Amino acid sequence: MEPDTTDSQPSEWPDGDSTPADEPVLRLIYTSISRLQGPVLAEMRRIRDQAARRNGPDGIRVALLHKSGYFVQWAEGPPAAVDRLLDRVIADLRHHGLQVLHRSLGRRRLFRPWIGAIVQSDEVPAVMAARVRRMAQWQRRDAADGEPAQVWAALCAPPQPDMPRPGGAGLRVMLLSARGRHSFDLLRWVAEHYRRPIVSRRFAAAADDVPDVASDYLDLPHDDMPGGLRLVAHARQSLAMGVAHAFLPDHGAVVIRLDSDIERNRHLLDRLLGVCGQVQHRLPIVGLGSPQSGQGELAEQVRLMGHEWLDAMVPAGLVSEARHWACLSPVLSQLAAARSG
Known about the structure:
Helix content: 25-40%
Number of domains: 2
Structural class: alpha/beta
Mean pLDDT: 85
Number of strands: 12
Strand order of the largest sheet: 4-1-3-2-5-7-8-9-6-10-11-12
Strand content: 15-25%
Order of helices and strands: EHEEHEEHHEHEEEHHEHEHEH
Radius of gyration: 20 Å
Oligomer: single chain
CATH topology of the largest domain: Rossmann fold
């Protein structure tokens, strides 16, 4: 799967870039068993078109995933409108066995009318079904008052079985690059070096003129990181189409792989800080790059916005993936230790 590396802007939805409202929204996550026969992508596009027509006027935002024979939908909006959406969904013949696994009032996390996702996975439906049952038991036992991103991750992106904490409580780090596909290159190097599997995901927006974006991840049971590490590489476009908004609260840090072009670094950082402001989430930002990347200026900008800045300085001229990881890994260990302490 080749990640999109463009910097194009998304379609101008009337309220797509609105700041979060003061009043909380209803956040709902359900699973259901897919009845789809034939190409999933074509049907997901039909679902998208229907959702854009119906949900937009009601102020509803939706993220929909198809994985291992299951649908997982995350919907947000005014409570009455979300309940009406659920009634329509229950009557849809493209699925059955609907279970609501999360229902909470809280801050909006979805900022685009619709985000669709397909995961490349060898997981059989029975494994997904077992995970849904465990989540349903947890939901009945405990109030679902956490972040919907955490529920989504537990359902759709569970940790590898050999991770130190099966519940996935380790450090999650978003990896972005100011140019090209360098975040994905670093992720691939780490996977090959430690012989870890990469999980590939493709996210689609609510309009045909917005390119799909990739978001790949791996889990690493790192000795210096209690609970292990999840590295998640995102295409830059995810900052514009709403993917990063949805999942940022589930991350403990963001790493920016800096470029020698300082203007590109500023542009990426502006986008990232804008997303953090919209979802009202503060977290450490790590600048991974050479002394020519403008870390001092970027660090000042980040700290003025109330975030922590950490340098992962790569000696000039040493541009290999191995050297970048050698410089980044101790910083991530430091973050993990602070998190667990």
